[in-house]
Each structure stands twice: as structure tokens, then as C-alpha cells.
Amino acid sequence: MSDETGTPDTRAGSPAAPTGPRPEPLRFFGTTWVNHDNGYTARRVGVAVGSLAAAVASCLVLRFAFEGLSIAGTGSLVTLLVVVMFAVCSSLAFAHTWGGFSRRPDPDRQASLRGLLAIGFVGSLLAHFFRSLTEAPGEKLLREEYETARKEHERLSVRRSGNPSKKRRRR
To answer: What is the pTM of this model?
Structure first.
């Protein structure tokens, strides 16, 4: 059955309830990544533009921080150490974020890297930008998991034909 808006009734026990695995939603994309419908391309463009704009804005904020260091007169060694720290943390955050698009991150490792990822936020933003040029960030991982779950569900839900209670017994 459906309601007055024509939306299928998906309550448990309903004949229209979908069976099998359901795709996991992605941030900003929901489940549009499955069939690339309902504005998927526009969302990808939005994520690419948004992450690049956030990275540029972050670099401007970091520039103000470096100007603050020079105004404070801390010296060139401290400024160099801060620049190297942000560069290393950003490159590590980029690599970690990029790797997280193809495999599930370990929660313990994620917790231990939280500080590094916070310092290297520009690298994470750039990883999102570059990944959104080809697909939704994390789509490949979720698609592989979803296809595996669907195949497993189809394999397990194959039914015998006929009524087994009417089957002749061997003697």
C-alpha cells in the first residue's frame, strides 16, 4: 500500500517492504551514489567546490597565523618549525583521508591520530576535493560492500521450487 503522496509503505510485514541489504548513506549524498540519481552530479560538484573553498579559506587563516608569528618576533626558526609542522601534518592527513576512502579506518588508530588530523585539516580537505572529482568520497568502498552484501543475500535467498510438504518420500 502507499500513502496519499504515493510513497510506498515500507513497514515491516508490508508486501511492498524491500528485502535484502540496504545501501549505507554517504554524507552529503545519502543513497544517491547507488544509481547516480537525484542530483548526484550536482552534489559531487558542490562537495568539490565546497572542499576547495574551505581549503583556500583555511590557508588564508593560516597565513594570518604566520603573520602573527612574525609580528610577535619569534624568529625564523619558530616560523620554519610551524611551517614544517603544518606541511607534514597536512600530508599525513591527506594520505590518511585518501586511504579511508578505500578501506574502513581502524577506530583506535583514528582516535590516536585525531590531533594530527586536526592540525593537518587542509590535507583532509584537499583529499575530499580530489576524490570528489571522480566519485563521491567513500563511494567505492560502500559500493563494494553493498554489492557483496547483495550477492550474499541473493545466494542465501534462493528457494526450492514447489511445496516441500508435497514431496514424495523415498522408501
So the answer is: 0.76
